[in-house]
């Protein structure tokens, strides 16, 4: 049913109001009042509902397929689907983004985004990125645009599949959380965190599979925690890197702990832009990262690769307590150009490494100035990929509890950081009930 926007909001029944009081005849709400705007009962499209929302409101979307790009520009709005797999924002391969968040304190929950030429969900403080202006090499090069961080966000229980760039993308954003989500068919990566320092972002309890790269962080660090995720069945599981295309070089200071990084050797995936395949974790010009107690298994090229990017060396990375098995090699450090690494260390048991004896020669701690040894090995040729539009459909994912009845989500100004000391090596079955790619621990 269509009706004028102002009348739509003011005419909401008391049953749709949360908090205390009700809107006055003049359209002013008592302090602390918020409303639930239902799609399509109160507004015909998600975009129409979001345009009516005020801070603290909940936009609750009924099952259906919605052909639109939803732009959330009002702070502290919750956008939530009633049924995760049945509320589908479909770009029909004609729209660049499914959901764009450019206001602080916004929560995106319990819905599916697919078939966008760029991103499923984009959270950003960049005006250029929000406008969908990609730079060269399919990433975002915002040129001389001043850095402006979006502060505080939440993406939870979102399924992002078959998107032409990233599934869930936090760019020039801080103080956020990406959790309980599933990404597949990302032609660049399933989850991406870029250009934030300090980030103060937590990425936890997600499944990223059948992407070119499961998770990628570029020029991102500072209270950046990637914990308890399943990065399996991609071409490359996880990368953390420095790149001149984005600001805030170099990448540094993230924690990657307690993740399953396995079987990243799938052919039925979009081709990775740099040709990578069969790699669990790549550190490419990143520094001062902690890679702690991950299970890294079944990656046909290498479990972990440490290298430089252009003129940016990797420095001070700590690889400690990880469990490696059934990889082509477990750990390889390689510097094919003039840029070399220093101060990197490895404490993860008896491993197959390049160069040989790496675990013994670089046991933590090492001096910050200690040159990192390196070698080379033959990399397997990657198989041809498939279009991102042809990636297998996602398995059923868990719902946000009480999605239909819970009030709006209050996004904290800074997320609660995990207690990394308590994070243990996960089992090979981590989040297996949400994944389609099987993982063996052999």
Automatic annotation (TrEMBL):
Signal sequence annotation: 1-25
Keyword Ubl conjugation listed: no
Entry keyword set: Repeat, Signal
Domain annotation Right handed beta helix: ranges: 98-241
Gene3D superfamilies: Single-stranded right-handed beta-helix, Pectin lyase-like (2.160.20.10)
SUPFAM superfamilies, A to Z: Pectin lyase-like
Cross-referenced InterPro entries: Beta_helix, PbH1, Pectin_lyas_fold, Pectin_lyase_fold/virulence, SCF-Subunits/Alg-Epimerases
SMART domains in the cross-refs: PbH1 (SM00710)
Keyword presence, Phosphoprotein: no
Protein name: Right handed beta helix domain-containing protein
Originating species: Amycolatopsis decaplanina DSM 44594
